[in-house]
Amino acid sequence: MPAITEDFRRAMGWLHSWLGVTIGVVMFAVFWMGSLTVFAPEIDRWMIPETRIVHRERAISYDRLLANLPPEAARSDYINFVVPDARRPAIGMFYRAADGEFRSLDLDPATGAPIDATDSHAGTGFVYPFHLSLTIEWRSLGYWIVGLAALSMLILLISGLFVHRKIIAEFFVFRPKRHARRATLDLHNLSSLAGLPFYFLMPFSGLLIFAFLYLPWGMAEPFGGKLKDATAAISGEYAVAKPAGRPAPLASVDAMKARAEAMWAAAEGVPVRTNLVRVFNYGDVRAAVYFRNTFPKDRVTLSEYVAVFDGVSGRVLHDFAKPPIGHASAWVQGAHFVQFGHWPLRWLYFAGGLGGCVMIATGMLFWLRKREAKLSANSPGYRLVEALTIAGTSGLIAATGAFLVANRLMPADARFVMESRADGEVLVFWLVWLGTVVHAAMLRGRAWAQQCWLIAGLAIAAFLLNAVTTGDHFVAAVGEGLWAVAGMDLVLLIAAAIAGRSAVRLSPVRPAVPMPVAMPAE
After folding, report:
1. Same domain flag for 98 and 135
2. What range does the record give for the signal peptide (predicted)?
3. Is 215 among the domain residues?
4. CA-to-CA distance for 9 and 12, rounded, in angstroms?
5. What's the whole-model pTM score?
6. CB-based burial of residue 82 (10 Å sphere; 0-12 exposed, 13-18 middle, 19+ buried)?
7. How far, rounded to the nearest angstrom, does the alpha carbon of residue 353 sit from its chain's CA centroid?
8. How far apart are CA 143 and CA 284, in angstroms?
9. DSSP 304-333
């Protein structure tokens, strides 16, 4: 029996090592971008200065907004408003244009006028999709890669519990002054155990959220194999008829919104706010108005209620409250996306995500340290893993810094080879990340320190450029109550300090050059 147990432990160790090094870069990228996604609205406000509005509670008239739509939006069959809040003080709006593409606008919450905002994908448009799908849209391949990374993370966590016999003792051991291999393993063990429940929750909930993609037949089976029916039963989706081509005036959206919130409050026993207002077939006899409480601020669960009204008569077409299984799904989504109003917990999520990055990076680094003597350090396989480890960790962080710096440096009308300025910022991200791969492959171990210096320089540059280009330096942002901007600046300074310290520690120590001894004159 002991021999079998030892063989099993060795098998788990082999699986833990090789699965980690194979999928480690993707896991690091997902965790890194997931950490930033926790503060995606704050990143939006930093990267789009025109939306740096101090939030004030005010009644928003959607009747007035619809009456003053831009001409292209007024002809759209799909108009969506995101209700402003403290984290997103501008009214978000997007609509489907005549060419089928979606256009987005930010509206001033006081006047309803469109804001001439900086063209940037920012946090919501780039960081968040990268976390979900690596922005690989072809046949949903990106979602499958991220799903594989999530499943791999769960396997790694479980196998790691078998690998480490003295799991409790290892939690209290960290020897940073020991040789590099020992210190790396200690840090890997410490970071792994400190956030273990969080590391289980994130990939597990992520897989459940996209179960409709990974296991569609399982979700559709209770509904006769019809996935659309399963989605409607869980999320409250409602099929709206296509426009008839006959004009008709729209009833008061504000009155419909008040009625929807009254219905929800009666069911819940407490006030429930609308977060999303959507108008289908605006100006048509088949118009419909859709309301959802997408992101409740006082609870974990997401999107518990949906109400759909006939746009012309104002009568209720669909009144949906999630069934029990839907509540379970909504709680899992809310626990993953952390959109509720709990700032301390949001910071803990951010710290947990960074802890996951440390765990993954030290695991890949330990693999390199351990095999440096066993394998030839010049073998193609070793050099490939080394370059991907460096570029997949420090290189990715540097590319993120370049993304922020490009946001502040690019002219408003910049296009380059991309279709828009926003795409140009993303292009800079990818080019810098690719450059770090080449840099790591050429300089190898020396690239660690140099890329850390690059991270520090980019973070300081982003901090200074924000002050120069917007005037909202840290002190001014605090004075004006722009906590999102001040928080971003503070995080940039902390990142620069950590990266600089890491660069110093990782820089090769040069041997002291002896002073020349003066020769006696002859």
Report:
1. no
2. none
3. no
4. 5
5. 0.90
6. buried
7. 10
8. 37
9. -EEEEEETTT--EEEEEE--HHHHHHHHHH
